Backbone:
């Protein structure tokens, strides 16, 4: 299962790509595979202030529905409208075009590096 | 109750599923393929071409002997002694209060030989109940689950695919019929049954023949659009077809009447049967809640366990038993028990979907019916 080395991760199977104080957030290939075909993504609106570890959206597949958790404290500055229109991108390209939203980071969350995340999903 | 079943059993096709890159899920103690590629692609293949399912986890119980049919008449709510040889019936095992212990398919293989197919999660319950209930009847009961692998070929192309591997006259095998046949060189029981809402076949074979049958069906099926299909799409297929699933629509807490399946209860048979008195009372009183279909034009789907609300009062008047975004219809569908008075098609209700109240409308399942 692909785990890009340059990204940070959460135990909730989200990834973060930091660029200064802006973090791009998505779900991992492991999460997308566990969910099955994603049919609906509910993202927080631009401007929403989110708190690390709290639910800020939903991802629904034919089989189940999962909360989307804010990985760090911050404010939503951009959302990926393309995934709302075509949620299947989360299955086909979770680490690139399947990104979900961008946060202006204001506080830390509990993040893992790629090695730690790999051992987390290897143990599941 | 205690169970003797290993918590992570493998079917004879486990290695084939691994080769095909399946994701696995634990289902009633069995490690089963949940999907091979995509739930929606597999679902669509079954609706438009064909899908191949491993159902070897299902339980098969064999009753033989002169009074096998009578023993089943006494044990089940249906009338198995009236089933013609080579035919099948959908039936139920109820407890003395009329609560459903399992739903079953009963095949009559010969005058004195029946095959009772139970849900994997209920095999022990069914076996124990049948053992108790057949006391005094001249019949033998055997758990034959280990003797049978079960492969289903489902979809509009199923008949064309199966007929490439057998000399049996497929056109003569009617819906809910079963016959001995030779398929890809193996002796099998070929049944025209399924759980998808499509035409299709269920192939009962010796476990050691299963791999060969599976790979042959894949090989000849591929040009017809057949794909291996997992339990995830099996669930959305049966839901679209309005078919109940034990543990969701059916349980010890409901009788066949509430589930809208009162037709399976045969009060007219000569034999008294377990649950008959309680079921007669429930029939005469009428159900207090009923199983209905719900559809929504929204995007978020009702899911099992969510409350159904009366939009006028906000009161909870029911509970969702199964729900999913329908791959075929493109909108959420669900089944739910609602209190009597809310079951009429067209009734506007709401479902509490994780805190927000989404509008739904009552419909009569099935949600999807195949073109004949």
Residues:
């Amino acid at each position: 299962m692909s785990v890009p080395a340059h990204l940070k991760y959460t135990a909730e199977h989200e990834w973060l790509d930091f660029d200064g104080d802006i973090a791009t957030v998505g779900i991992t290939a492991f999460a997308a595979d566990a969910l099955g075909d994603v049919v609906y993504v509910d993202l927080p609106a631009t401007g929403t202030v989110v708190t690390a570890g709290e639910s800020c959206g939903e991802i629904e597949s034919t089989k189940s529905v999962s909360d989307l958790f804010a990985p760090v404290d911050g404010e939503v500055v951009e959302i990926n409208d393309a995934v709302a229109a075509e949620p299947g991108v989360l299955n086909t390209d979770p680490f690139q075009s399947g990104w979900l939203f961008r946060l202006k980071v204001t506080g830390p969350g509990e993040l893992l590096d790629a090695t730690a995340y790999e051992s987390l999903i290897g143990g599941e | 109750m205690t169970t003797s079943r290993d918590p992570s059993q493998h079917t004879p096709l486990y290695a084939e599923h691994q080769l095909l890159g399946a994701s696995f899920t634990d289902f009633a103690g069995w490690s089963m393929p949940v999907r091979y590629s995509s739930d929606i692609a597999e679902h669509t293949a079954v609706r438009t071409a064909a899908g191949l399912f491993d159902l070897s986890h299902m339980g098969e119980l064999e009753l033989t002997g002169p009074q096998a049919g009578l023993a089943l008449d006494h044990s089940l709510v249906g009338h198995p002694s009236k089933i013609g040889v080579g035919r099948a019936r959908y039936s139920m095992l109820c407890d003395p209060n009329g609560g459903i212990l399992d739903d079953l398919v009963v095949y009559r293989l010969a005058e004195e030989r029946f095959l009772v197919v139970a849900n994997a999660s209920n095999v022990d319950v069914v076996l124990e109940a049948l053992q108790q209930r057949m006391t005094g009847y001249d019949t033998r009961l055997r758990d034959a689950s280990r003797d049978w692998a079960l492969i289903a070929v489902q979809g509009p192309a199923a008949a064309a695919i199966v007929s490439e591997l057998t000399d049996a006259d497929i056109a003569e095998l009617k819906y809910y019929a079963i016959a001995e046949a030779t398929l890809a060189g193996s002796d099998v029981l070929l049944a025209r049954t399924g759980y998808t809402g499509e035409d299709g076949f269920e192939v009962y074979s010796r476990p050691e023949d299963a791999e060969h049958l599976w790979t042959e069906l894949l090989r000849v099926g591929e040009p017809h659009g057949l794909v291996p299909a997992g339990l995830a799409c099996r669930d959305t297929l049966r839901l679209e077809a309005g078919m109940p699933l034990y543990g969701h629509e059916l349980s010890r807490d409901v009788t066949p009447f509430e589930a809208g399946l009162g037709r399976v209860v045969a009060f007219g048979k000569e034999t008294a049967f377990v649950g008959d008195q309680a079921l007669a009372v429930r029939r005469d009183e009428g159900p207090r809640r009923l199983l209905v279909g719900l559809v929504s034009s929204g995007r978020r789907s009702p899911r099992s366990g969510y409350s159904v609300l009366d939009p006028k009062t906000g009161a909870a008047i029911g509970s969702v038993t199964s729900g999913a975004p329908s791959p075929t219809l493109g909108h959420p569908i669900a089944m739910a028990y609602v209190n009597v008075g809310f079951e009429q098609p067209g009734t506007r209700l709401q479902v509490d979907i994780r805190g927000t109240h989404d509008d739904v409308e009552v419909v009569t399942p099935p949600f999807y019916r195949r073109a004949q």
